[in-house]
Specification:
24% helix; 5 helices; alpha+beta; single chain; seven-stranded antiparallel β-sheet
Length: 223
C-alpha cells in the first residue's frame, strides 16, 4: 500500500512532495520519507515513522532545499516499521531510490552485493535496488543505463523513482506490475503511484506502460 511521489521542477520540490504524500494518505502506511538534490548536487534526506505530518514537522525543523526529489510512504513488508527501513534508500551518497512492490530475488542480490562490499542499513528488499543502481554507475553507466541494467536483474513487481548526485538534473521512473503515472508541467515533470498525488500541480498525465522506463529532465521526457 505504498505511495510514490517525485519531481524535477523549476521550483522547490519538497513542499510538492509532501503535499503529494498527504493526498495518498488514504492508502495504509507506517513511515514516510523524502530526499532532494540540493544546490551542491548532494542528496539530503528526511525519514520518519508514523504519519506524513511527522515528516512535515521534521521538514519544518530542518528544511531540505532542491528542485529534484522523490518521496514515499511505506507499508512494511520486509522489515519492521522504522526510520532505517523507511524510503528513500541511499547508496554511498550517490543514488536514492523509492520503490513500490516486492523484489522476489532480493536475498540472492543481497548476497551478491555483500560480496561486492556494499553495506546494508535496512531489512528491506528495496535496498538491493539502490545498491544495484549504484553498482552499475560504478561500472560506467549513466543513470538511465544503470536503471535499465538494474531492472534486468530484478525479479518481481516494482514501481521505481530514482535520482542521483551524479546527474542531479535527471529523474528516472520505471515500472513492472505496479502503477506509475507521470504529470506533465511546463519545464517540469512529476511522478506518482496514483494520479491523486499530483492533482494540485498538474492535470495532463501520461500513464507509464508495464516494463517501461521514463527518463525525465526539465527539457523533455523520453520513454
Amino acid at each position: 500500500m505504498c505511495g510514490i511521489v517525485g519531481a524535477i521542477a523549476q521550483r522547490e520540490v519538497a513542499p510538492i512532495l509532501l503535499e503529494g504524500l498527504k493526498r495518498l494518505e488514504y492508502r495504509g502506511y507506517d513511515s514516510a520519507g523524502l530526499v532532494v538534490l540540493n544546490e551542491s548536487a548532494e542528496l539530503e534526506r528526511i525519514r520518519t515513522t508514523g504519519k506524513v505530518v511527522q515528516l512535515a514537522n521534521a521538514y519544518d525543523r530542518q528544511p531540505v532545499i532542491g528542485k529534484t526529489g522523490i518521496a514515499h510512504t511505506r507499508w512494511a513488508t520486509h522489515g519492521k516499521p522504522s526510520e532505517s527501513n523507511a524510503h528513500p534508500h541511499i547508496c554511498r551518497n550517490k543514488v536514492a531510490v523509492v520503490h513500490n512492490g516486492i523484489i522476489e530475488n532480493h536475498q540472492t542480490l543481497r548476497e551478491q552485493q555483500s560480496k561486492l562490499g556494499f553495506t546494508f542499513t535496512s531489512d528491506t528488499d528495496t535496498e538491493v535496488v539502490v545498491h544495484q543502481v549504484c553498482h552499475q554507475l560504478d561500472q560506467g553507466d549513466n543513470l538511465l543505463q544503470a536503471v535499465q541494467h538494474t531492472c534486468q536483474d530484478l525479479e518481481g513487481a516494482y514501481a521505481l523513482g530514482v535520482v542521483s548526485a551524479t546527474e542531479p538534473d535527471r529523474l528516472i521512473a520505471a515500472r513492472r506490475g505496479s502503477p506509475l503515472v507521470i504529470g506533465v508541467g511546463i519545464g517540469e515533470y512529476f511522478i506518482a503511484s496514483y494520479v491523486a498525488g499530483l492533482l494540485p500541480v498538474t492535470q495532463p498525465f501520461v500513464f507509464v506502460e508495464d516494463c517501461d522506463i521514463a527518463d525525465l529532465t526539465r527539457v523533455g521526457m523520453l520513454i
